[in-house]
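Pinned message: reference record for 6-phosphogluconolactonase
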Amino acid sequence: MDEIEWWEFDSAKDMAEQVAGDIGFVIESALEAHKGARLAVPGGSTPDLIYAELLKRKDIDWTKVTLIPTDDRLVKLDDGLSNYGKLEGFFGARKADIVSLIDEAALENPQEAGRLADARLSLLQWPLDLACLGMGADGHTASIFPGPDFDAAVNGPRTRRAIGVRPDPLPDAAPVPRVTLTAPALASARTVMIVISGAEKRRVLEQALKEGPLSSYPIGRVVSAMDVPIDIYWSAE
Ligand SMILES: O=C1O[C@H](COP(=O)(O)O)[C@@H](O)[C@H](O)[C@H]1O
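Predicted structure (tokens):
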């Protein structure tokens, strides 16, 4: 793990403005450097304000931006739990290229769903320009959870970018199997941000960072695999 910098905000709105500005800068730099931007971005509820702020920017050519959910829930793409569906709702009308990790033909088979997502991702250019990570209060990030797929998600081969995940226990917020980008895929990004809010998540993240590579928290394991500087954005509410 390289250097970590914390950016603190009183409100989620203030944080969203800053994060959207910084993501905008990553997109601009990527477009200048290689004519396209490839970003992995989180699902869940934390990014909603950030995505709304990003859409206010008039200077982004979304047709040159590829958005990949850091993870998704194994549900139909129009299900309210779908992270792809969230991105489509925000950025679809701007014609961003939104890559789904979920193939609806494999909803009953997490391992096959992971293989199909991995094959789809291998058609993109790597590395990512940005991995923007959320985190649950239980310390999961993307959909890297404790369970039978945890080791493959954090310690699997560098060439494997997505896998199917059967969280054990299933998380209350969205109790379904998942597909996630692996720690090596996330760690290969040129830029890494973590975006969280609230005192409980901060306590968990600080503890995970203290524990390091053997952390019991998925976020601790993922951060330990990174070797670029990491910006952590935290809002009190
Ligand atoms: O299940 C998920 O949870 C995390 C955190 O979500 P939040 O609602 O607490 O912000 C999210 O980062 C991840 O992408 C998502 O699928």
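Pinned by admin. Summary line: Residues 42-46, 70-71, 83, 134-136, 142-143, 174 surround LXAUTJHC (CB under 6 Å).
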